[in-house]
Request: fold
Amino acid sequence: MGRVHAAARHHRHGRNLRRVPFGTAEEALAALAARRIDVAFVPLGAALAPVQAGKARALAVTSAARARALPKVPTVAESGYAGFEAVAWQGLLLPIATPKPLVAIHNADANKVLALPAVRDAILALGLEPGGGSSGRLFDQIRVDRGEWSTFFAPVARKP
Reply:
C-alpha cells in the first residue's frame, strides 16, 4: 500500500520518481542498505529497526502528525509538502445488514480491547498508532479515502 500512496502523492504534486518494485518492505530496505536505490517508501513498522540501528535514516513520516515511535522525524507536510498525508488503517468490518445494536456492541468491545495497555503497547511497538472510536468515524474515513482514490484511479479504471 505504501507504493500506491507514494505514487498517488507524487502524481498529485507533479513529481516523477522511478518505481522499483520489491515484494516486501524488507527487500526494499536491503536494497537501500546496499545502495541499489536512493529512497524507499516503507511502513514505519518495517523501518523502525534499521532506523534505530543507524542503518537507515528516516527523512519524514507520511502521517499528518509526527510518529510517536520517531518523534524527531518531521512529517512530509512539515518538510515542505503541505497537505501531504498517506496513512494505512485497519478496521473491524461487519456485514452491511448487521443490526445497529450489534454494531454498537462490537464497536464497544473493540474499543475496550484497544484500550488495554498490553494491546496498546504491542501496537506501538509495531510503529503503529492505536486507534478506535465510533463506527461513524470509520465510515467517514472510508468515504474520504474512496473519494481521494477514485480521483487517482479514474484515468485507468475499467468500465463495467
